[in-house]
């Protein structure tokens, strides 16, 4: 049998399936079927088969991969964002909502500038399948800026929806403030201030982040770079009361945030607003000096609760951590030795024969620089004259400070019937979850800095995008914990901890993962970022047949067992 094309004058040729046979010594042929209605690719495939071959003789000769784009990490993050209802949080404007969603997902999988992000979303310069999956079409940086301008007015509604999902009456609210440096000088928000990044001379902005008791982000606020912690807390209390409509909550903030003024002026105005914070070192020293805090309390235990006569509505939970005490003692010893090493150089400089250091002002500048560098001025008695310099330790102050090593005091207005002393200490220690969020936002994952935007609203929108990206990442980490170095056995970790005052311990399961680099299923253990990179090796490939017998098609890489496990944990299907 064979396929024959028969000319048909002005009409398309007839495609016939025929066979040859011999009759009376002559070769004849007869038509078995008219294939004119078949598609060309099907006809060509039949020709190959009738010639004794197969439809594909050599795969590498029959097909070529026109383009491969990383897809697995996009599917994981985008599907998680959709499952969390993030598109619904972003209102209904389809095109702008897709662009915002694209920027959030791109921030998780590959944080870049808006210009680079736009390039990664365009079809001809795509870094991944994100732009195609969202059907964005042509994307420019201006389109993304337009989407950011649209997003910022949605922030109050977005935060209200998140608060409804994750907060309720009686919730624990974790709040902290951080700073991040700024590029340029034209943004009104960028100011010189206390740099938590330890970068001097750089303009910065301050970012306040509100999380629930688990560390899940709920709301974010951007402040000028010279705003201190307490004023930012005032804005938070107003947001919780007016925007979230909550009447009974417990605020958890550090000792620089929840000052006496903020407690009096912001929290005590609302009957249902309680708080948890801690005392500063001078306040602890004052308690010890007045005899209201007896260090003998810690001879047999590491936690004690006291109440002061002049503050009957405030509870003080006093804790002593021996490991923290040893750490502070080592640090003080090192600082004292480093300070004296530098001060001795100044003493030598005043006594040398050639060009000795002279003058109270010059010697004082050198001494002040050393004491300011190591923050040890309180522990030394300094004597300076025009030609000499002497110093000595104030041992009484050093001993008084050493006596308080490892001691910290958590203070709260929460009644004992609501939270016991151990629960209060654990709630205060939960602030570490906000610090972990800041590390993710600023450095290892989402890279909120450096900030290049010039307009105030663009800076606020950029920070909001990063917070929403962390919201997605936070939920992904919860689901992927069995495959990550993260501890996915909190009950086991709690069992390893001697007391709430002692440092947090990892569970045996987490220690095993770190030691063997394998999960219980014998799969490799990853960090969040390396797991995303592993998922990115699942590609979406455009296959182009070299023969006209076949139509082009798209094929997705088959996941490895590890990748399939990650997708299953995230409830993601590559076929959807």
Walkthrough of the structure:
- By secondary structure, this protein is of the alpha+beta class.
- The chain folds into 4 domains: 2-55, no CATH class; 70-165 and 455-484 and 526-576, no CATH class; 167-278 and 418-453, 2-Layer Sandwich (Nucleotidyltransferase, domain 5); 323-403.
- The chain is built from 22 helices and 16 strands.
- It has helices spanning 40-50, 59-62, 72-83, 86-89, 94-109, 114-121, 130-133, 141-151, 155-166, 229-243, 260-267, 281-290, 322-351, 360-374, 395-403, 421-429, 431-444, 456-480, 490-496, 508-516, 528-535, 561-569; strands at residues 2-8, 11-23, 26-34, 63-70, 171-181, 204-211, 217-224, 249-252, 273-278, 303-308, 311-320, 380-384, 389-393, 407-412, 539-545, 553-556.
- An 8-stranded mixed β-sheet has the order 7-6-5-8-9-14-11-10, with helices on both faces. A 3-stranded antiparallel β-sheet has the order 1-2-3.
- Helix 5 (94-109) packs across helix 18 and helix 6 packs across helix 8 (141-151).
- The longest helix is centred in the middle third of the chain and has 30 residues, at 322-351.
- The protein is elongated, with a radius of gyration of 34 Å.
């Amino acid at each position: 049998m064979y396929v024959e094309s028969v000319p048909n004058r002005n009409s398309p040729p007839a495609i016939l399936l025929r066979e040859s046979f011999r009759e009376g010594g002559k070769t004849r042929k007869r038509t078995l079927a008219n294939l004119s209605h078949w598609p060309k690719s099907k006809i060509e495939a039949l020709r190959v088969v009738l010639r004794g071959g197969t439809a594909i003789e050599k795969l590498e000769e029959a097909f070529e991969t026109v383009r491969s784009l990383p897809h697995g990490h996009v599917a994981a993050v985008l599907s998680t964002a959709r499952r969390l209802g993030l598109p619904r949080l972003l209102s209904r404007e389809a095109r702008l909502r897709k662009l915002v969603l694209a920027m959030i997902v791109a921030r998780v999988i590959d944080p870049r500038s808006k210009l680079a992000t736009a390039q990664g979303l365009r079809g001809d310069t795509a870094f991944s399948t994100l732009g195609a999956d969202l059907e964005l079409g042509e994307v420019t940086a201006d389109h993304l800026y337009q989407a950011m301008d649209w997003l910022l007015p949605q922030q109050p509604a977005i935060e209200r929806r998140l608060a409804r999902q994750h907060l309720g009456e009686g919730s624990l609210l974790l709040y902290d403030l951080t700073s991040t440096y700024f590029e340029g000088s034209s943004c009104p928000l960028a100011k010189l201030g206390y740099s938590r990044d330890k970068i001097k001379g750089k303009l910065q902005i301050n970012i306040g982040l509100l999380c629930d008791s688990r560390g899940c982000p709920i709301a974010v606020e951007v402040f000028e770079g010279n705003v201190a912690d307490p004023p930012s807390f005032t804005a938070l209390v107003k947001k919780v009361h007016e925007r979230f409509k909550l009447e009974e909550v417990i605020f958890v903030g550090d000792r620089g945030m929840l000052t006496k003024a903020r407690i009096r002026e912001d929290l005590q105005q609302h009957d249902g607003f309680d708080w948890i914070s801690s005392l500063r070192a001078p306040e602890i020293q004052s308690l010890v000096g007045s005899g209201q805090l007896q260090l003998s309390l810690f001879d047999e235990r590491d936690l004690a609760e006291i109440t002061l006569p002049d503050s009957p509505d405030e509870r003080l939970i006093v804790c002593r951590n021996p490991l923290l005490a040893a750490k502070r003692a080592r640090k003080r010893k090192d600082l004292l030795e480093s300070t004296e090493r530098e001060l001795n150089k100044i003493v030598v400089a005043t006594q040398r024969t050639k060009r000795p250091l002279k003058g109270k002002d010059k010697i004082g500048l050198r001494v002040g620089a050393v004491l300011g560098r190591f923050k040890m001025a309180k522990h030394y008695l300094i004597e300076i004259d025009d030609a000499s310099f002497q110093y000595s330790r104030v041992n009484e102050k050093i001993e008084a400070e050493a006596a308080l090593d490892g001691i910290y005091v958590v203070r709260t207005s929460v009644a004992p019937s609501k939270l016991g002393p151990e629960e209060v200490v654990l709630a205060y220690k939960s602030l570490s979850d906000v610090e972990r969020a800041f590390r993710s936002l600023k450095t290892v994952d989402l890279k909120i800095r450096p900030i290049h935007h010039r307009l105030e609203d663009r800076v606020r929108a950029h920070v909001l995008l990063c917070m929403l990206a962390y919201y997605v990442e936070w939920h992904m980490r919860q689901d992927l914990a069995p495959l990550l170095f993260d501890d996915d056995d909190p009950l086991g970790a709690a069992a390893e901890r001697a007391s709430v005052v002692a440092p947090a311990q990892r569970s045996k399961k987490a220690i095993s993962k770190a030691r063997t680099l394998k999960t219980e299923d014998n799969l490799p253990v990853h960090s969040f970022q390396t797991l995303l990179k592993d998922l990115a090796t699942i590609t979406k490939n455009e296959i182009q047949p070299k023969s006209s017998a076949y139509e082009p098609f798209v094929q997705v890489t088959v996941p490895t067992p590890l990748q399939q496990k990650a997708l299953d944990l995230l409830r993601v299907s590559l076929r959807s």
